[in-house]
Design goal:
heterodimer, A: Ubiquitin-like (UB roll), 5 helices, globular, B: alpha+beta, 18 helices
Chain lengths: 161, 794
């Protein structure tokens, strides 16, 4: 077995760990750091439940090796709420719009849409839908998720003014 | 509905503040922060991980299994083969729903002893330090097989020379059933028109985003075995484990925390759950197994593979006289849920129509494919597909409008309660309890502007665009018994706890139960805690399937809460020396109506109700502010709905674009319309998958060939439109809340309506579509065969 020492910054906190080279980033987050909010739905890069932000860009934690994340900043669902524990605008909008049912796809939906809203605060409905085509949800039929993203965008725009 | 005391004098008392409100969910706060506890998230000290060696063949004899190399691998704790199981676990699993029509019963073994009957059958189990090592070890286990002839096609499976799917069973007929009512032959002999067709639906699969998973821990101090599962039926799991492990029922506990979707297949008891429990007890360490997605394609039950040969007899006015149905259900290799799925299917066929006579011949056939059991809709989507499509064909043959032929055959509201003639899956006559079917369709047609569609279609055609419209009606038996229970308890802290076995897979049960309870006790939701799906929380339970939880558990919460309210009032009246009808409940206090400064808190009352050691209660006071109710519905309650779909078809790519999806839906009173809307929209998404995308394919060796999400397509955000949803409200007279199930209605008519709309978009070709899913490749082949494309002249 082949181990490497890596240092990552997850949700603003630094972690140094020895990891096996084949360990996925998802397993590293879930098992080594006990951040189980990142979910594994397919482990072949399609369902998107495991999406995290790697240096601000969405990445599949199931297809990324932990060693590839060395020296990177990672944001997981656990890092989306404000420091005082209140929900982010997007999280709040998910609650208001009923944008989650079982909640299993939610981590990937939130990280992917966080990335979208970081890049574009005025997305159209079809841009929102396009953005989450890499995130499968079996419960909601997506509509409430799309509405939540549009509501969050509106609220964030209002905050900026 | 009005459960509230009318005689309230307190100005701020709240009649039904919560029931019927679009409340945000109390579940969401933790889930949105990644703090849910799905089975793979439960922190277990010293947990071991595991993996299964599975059969790569559809049918084969195991000649030998060599674990010598794998056993040597560092980090491997134990490898189990069939012979290593406790004796009680060396039999086949018990059937969950037996039926006398089952001729030969075939159930899974925990680990296969001699003969695999399906790709994915488990033959060895490895427990190791982590999953990487467990899977390495699986790769080092050599299994030698003798490949046996395979049954891959259910229609050929009953041929005289067909091989047997399992050498212990002489032929592949699992069950045969004839059900009928009325004078079928005279119906057909009097008919002016007879329309016949054969329909097929693909099996598909449920695919909750969380796969199956189990963790087990044996607590040496207490002798208790705890199993955490991502399931739907905690008490059924317990029942099976007691049998397989020969375990003392008082020392086993099944818990479902958060479950990432279910949709049917997680209601089944699976070999893996028994295996994990056996290993945890054997190794005296927690053991966990989490299914991967490919295993889910292999082993989580699937559903809809059925062939429906259906004939319908009509009079000159297009009124239905009789029907004949010959249905063959491709069951796969095991019968975990008996013949429930196909039986629900055939009895769903009459739907909202008056059908004087039906004769059904049902054959349930074993094949060497993954087992089937209910998936969201549970046999009904196929029945509705067959019924609605044959009506479309009849309308075409008779030259009348598709909506009109339905109108002429509807059961009228004044005919309610209406006995459709069948005995339902609940063992009771199928008596529709309430509903207005003509109104339901009329509303859908109005909202989709059905009458104007020909003009829209013609205008689009001028631009070279092909539009189509389709409609489908359904009636769904929901809220199936026998019961579900709930305990409502006022704690000494003053908080209220609801305990029930009804497990949630994302439906929002906790919020729903809180709303029901809060109105009875006049407390805010924040004063209530809910424990679901814990076999230690309540002694009996069934589980979550068949759109049954709000009907069964919801009414139990309602009744238990009312009893607790009475107890609180009785005790408070006694202590404050006033009449019971002088007591009003509000925000955790029992207050006298005459003088609102005279009050007792729920906390104080709960303490009094706990008694003092040795002291007798005064007359009229009983112990505990709690009540347990097991609501047991007399029969199923029947919800109904209409789907109306307008879409555009690109004939070159055979892709559809749904322009408008209208759903009118009647599930009686709604506890939380926000959650019901979510259920309907979500179940329609599932139906859209069944209509055009989800195609679970096997080759002629029963080898599954779509085993990942690149090969098997789930609907994406760009495939599912915003559904225009309209609720009708025909309360069920069968339960105090007047509720019906709502979780599956969207799925049930979707394929029938969408495929009808696709067919309408190619109506110039005269093609009649008989299959679902109508994937682009399948539709392209049909159009090509019909000469719809110009042939190359080169």
């Amino acid at each position: 077995m082949d181990f490497h020492r890596i240092k990552v910054y997850v949700n603003g906190k630094a972690y140094e760990r020895e990891v096996e080279s084949r360990r996925t980033l998802a397993d590293f987050l879930r098992m080594d750091l006990s951040l189980t909010g990142t979910h594994l739905g397919c482990e072949h890069g399609v369902c998107g439940a495991c999406t995290v932000l790697l240096n601000g860009s969405s990445a599949r934690a199931c297809l990324t090796l932990a060693v590839q994340a060395d020296q990177c900043e990672i944001t997981t669902i656990e890092g989306l709420a404000h420091a005082d524990g209140t929900l982010s605008v997007l999280q709040q909008a998910f609650q208001e719009c009923h944008g989650l049912q079982c909640g299993f796809c939610t981590p990937g939906m939130l990280t992917t849409l966080t990335e979208l809203l970081n890049e574009n605060l005025s997305p159209t409905e079809s841009q929102v839908r396009e953005a989450i085509t890499g995130n499968l949800c079996r419960c909601t039929g997506y509509q409430a998720i799309v509405e939540a993203a549009l509501l969050a965008a509106q609220k964030l725009r209002d905050q900026r003014v | 509905m009005n459960n509230h005391q009318e005689d309230s004098l307190l100005p701020h008392a709240r009649p039904n503040q919560f029931i019927g409100s679009r409340m945000q969910r109390t579940e969401d706060h933790l889930l949105l922060q990644g703090l849910g506890k799905y089975v793979d998230d439960i922190p277990l000290t010293n947990v071991l991980y595991s993996a299964f060696v599975r059969s790569p063949h559809g049918h084969a004899k195991i000649l030998s299994i060599d674990i010598s190399k794998a056993s040597q691998l560092p980090g491997v704790h134990k490898i189990y083969l069939h012979k290593d199981l406790p004796e009680s676990a060396q039999t086949r699993l018990p059937i969950l729903v037996p039926n006398p029509s089952i001729k030969h019963l075939m159930m899974q073994e925990v680990l296969v002893s001699k003969e695999v009957c399906c790709v994915g059958d488990a033959v060895a189990f490895v427990v190791a330090d982590n999953r990487y090592i467990a899977e390495d070890a699986c790769n080092l286990i050599d299994v030698e097989y003798e490949i046996l002839p395979v049954v891959a096609d259910c229609l050929k499976a009953l041929d005289a020379n067909a091989p047997s799917f399992f050498s212990g069973i002489p032929n592949n007929l699992a069950a045969q059933l004839n059900v009928h009512f009325g004078e079928v032959d005279s119906g057909f002999s009097q008919a002016t028109h007879v329309v016949q067709e054969v329909f097929w639906n693909n099996r598909g699969s449920a695919h909750p985003m969380e796969t199956r998973g189990y963790a087990a821990e044996y607590h040496q101090a207490s002798g208790q075995l705890t199993v955490w599962s991502s399931g739907q039926t905690p008490h059924l799991e317990k029942k099976n484990l007691i049998d397989i492990l020969k375990w003392d029922p008082e020392f086993i506990r099944i818990i479902h925390h958060d479950v990432g979707g279910g949709f049917g297949p997680k209601a089944i008891f699976y070999p893996e759950e028994a295996m994990v429990a056996i290993a945890a007890h054997d190794l005296l360490r927690p053991v966990k197994w989490i299914e991967d997605r490919r295993e889910h394609f292999y082993t989580a039950t699937q559903e809809r593979d059925q062939w429906w040969d259906i004939s319908i007899a009509l009079d000159a006015n297009a009124k239905i006289l009789a029907m004949k149905i010959d249905m063959t259900h491709d069951n796969g290799a095991y019968l975990p849920w008996g013949i429930i799925t196909p039986y629900i299917g055939v009895t769903t066929t009459p739907g909202p129509y008056v059908i004087p006579a039906i004769d059904v011949n049902l054959k349930v056939v074993y094949t060497n494919k993954n087992a089937t059991s209910p998936v969201r809709g549970a046999g009904r989507p196929q029945a509705v597909f067959a019924m609605e499509r044959i009506l479309d064909k009849a309308a075409r043959q008779l030259g009348i409008d598709r909506a009109e032929i339905r109108r002429r055959n509807f059961i009228q509201p004044e005919q309610m309660p209406y006995n459709n003639g069948f005995i339902y899956r609940d063992g009771k006559p199928m008596v529709y309890d309430s509903g207005d079917y003509p109104q339901c369709q009329a509303l859908a047609l109005e909202k989709i502007a059905y009458d104007d569609f020909p003009a829209r279609q013609a205008a689009a055609l001028k631009e070279g665009r092909y539009l189509g419209i389709g409609i489908a009606n359904f009636v769904e038996g929901t809220g199936l018994g026998p019961f579900e229970g709930a305990t409502v308890r006022v704690q000494q802290t003053g908080r209220i706890t609801i305990l029930t076995s009804a497990s949630s897979q994302g439906q929002g049960h906790k919020t729903t139960f809180m709303q029901i309870c809060a109105d009875q006790l006049q407390v805010p939701l924040a004063m209530i805690d809910v424990i679901t799906a814990d076999t230690n929380a309540i002694s009996m339970g069934i589980g979550t399937f068949a759109s049954r939880v709000t009907v069964n558990a919801g009414n139990s919460v309602f009744l238990a809460s009312q009893k607790v309210a009475e107890k609180i009032k009785g005790l408070a009246a006694f202590l404050m020396q006033t009449r019971v009808d002088n007591i009003q409940l509000l925000d955790g206090y029992a207050i006298t109506i005459e003088d609102s400064s005279k009050k007792k808190s729920f906390a104080d009352l709960a303490r009094v109700s706990q008694g003092m050691p040795g002291f007798s209660f005064p007359e009229g006071v009983t112990n505990g502010l709690e009540s347990t109710e097991y609501f047991s519905p007399a029969q199923s309650t029947y919800c109904n709905g209409t789907a109306a779909v307008e879409l555009e078809l690109d004939r070159d790519t055979c892709q559809i674009n749904i322009l408008k999806y209208v759903m009118t839906h009647d599930s009686g009173n709604l506890i939380n319309p926000l959650l019901v809307d979510g259920q309907v929209q979500g179940s329609i998404a599932h139906g859209i998958g069944n209509s055009t995308l989800e195609d679970m394919q096997y080759d002629d060796q029963a080898q599954p060939i779509t085993t990942n999400f690149g090969e098997y397509l789930l609907p994406m955000a760009t495939d599912v439109p915003k559904v225009q949803m309209y609720h009708l409200f025909s309360p069920s007279p069968l339960n105090p809340l007047g509720v019906k199930g709502a979780g599956e209605g969207g799925t049930i008519p979707a394929a029938a309506a969408i495929v009808a709309a696709i067919e309408d978009a190619i109506s110039d070709t005269g093609i009649f579509l008989t299959q679902a899913p109508m994937t682009p490749p399948r539709l392209f082949e049909i159009l090509k065969k019909a000469g719809a494309y110009p042939t190359s002249t080169s």
